[in-house]
Write a structure and sequence with these properties.
The chain has about 270 residues and is an alpha/beta fold. The N and C termini lie far apart (about 40 Å). It has ten helices and eight strands.
Length: about 270
């Protein structure tokens, strides 16, 4: 590749230590085999913490020990809507037990509705979502939600449980200003993924310009949704630096300001440090 077209590394952005990738799947096979190298690069890029999302109690039980040597990895645990059919009383009891006994679990998630893939019937997804929201409410825990092609029903379930102005993070936000305004009105936080770097994501670009920086965090959702200039390659936590760069450009703000403020927002939301 010619030197003029060589892609910058995330470390080359020279960001200060204090960033947080709020949503990663480091325990998936694509990443778990080189965790040490991945986390070393993340630290060199300026990441202070990374949130690892376990997609159910089984994943947690099998993979938790991968992070024994990395105290800056915090945990998020819940049943993804794709697996909603597995949410029963026994599953909920296992999640509750983990939340009550592992201090590294900082939120219940990612939970919600996904009508794009439709791996589970809508009514089953809604029931599983509601049950996990009620558990989070009973335990007074933050939630991280997944909503894809299901915004209307997502709001309906949240209203039914009474989640307005409770700690909620809207994971992988990809909507426009109207959806962002509704989320903000209800007192929730918004997480910006690497798709914000895509040139065709015009609605998301406009939304990012309108969301107060104090209500925004950053994420990779790695190994998925790799930002430019590495789109189509495997994603990893360090790549969140390019998301921060795009957010800063859209808002005409300093990248370090965006990086550190989003990090402080995440630290407060998850109760880190």
């Amino acid at each position: 590749m010619p030197a003029s077209k060589k892609r910058p590394t995330p470390e080359s952005l020279s960001l200060p230590l204090g960033g947080i990738d709020t949503h990663a799947h480091l325990d998936l096979p694509e990443l778990q085999n080189d965790i040490r190298e991945t986390l070393a690069t993340a630290h060199e890029t300026g990441l202070a913490y990374i949130g690892n999302v376990f997609l159910g109690p089984r994943s947690y039980t099998e993979n938790r020990t991968l992070f024994d040597l990395y105290p800056n990895i915090f945990f998020i645990l819940g049943m993804h809507p794709h697996n909603a059919q597995a949410v029963d009383e026994a599953c909920l009891a296992r999640i509750q037990n983990v939340l009550e006994h592992d201090e590294r679990i900082k939120a219940l998630g990612e939970i919600g509705l996904d009508y794009f893939r439709d791996h589970a019937p809508h009514n089953v997804q809604q029931k599983a979502f509601q049950a996990q929201l009620e558990l989070a409410k009973d335990l007074d825990r933050p939630v991280v939600i997944h909503s894809r092609a299901a915004e209307e029903d997502t709001f309906a379930v949240l209203d039914q449980v009474g989640f307005d102005h409770r700690p909620l993070l809207w994971h992988c936000f990809g909507g426009g200003q109207e959806l962002a305004a509704e989320i903000l009105r209800r007192g929730w936080m918004i997480s910006i993924p690497g798709t914000v770097t895509f040139s065709k994501a015009k609605d998301l670009h406009q939304a990012v310009q309108s969301i107060p920086l104090s209500r925004m965090v950053l994420e990779t959702d790695c190994p998925f949704l790799t930002p430019e200039p590495y789109r189509s390659k495997r994603n990893e936590p360090a790549m969140v630096a390019f998301t921060a760069r795009k957010v800063a450009a859209l808002r005409d703000e300093d990248i370090s300001q965006v990086w550190l403020q989003a990090g402080r927002n995440a630290q407060e939301f998850f109760g880190l440090g």
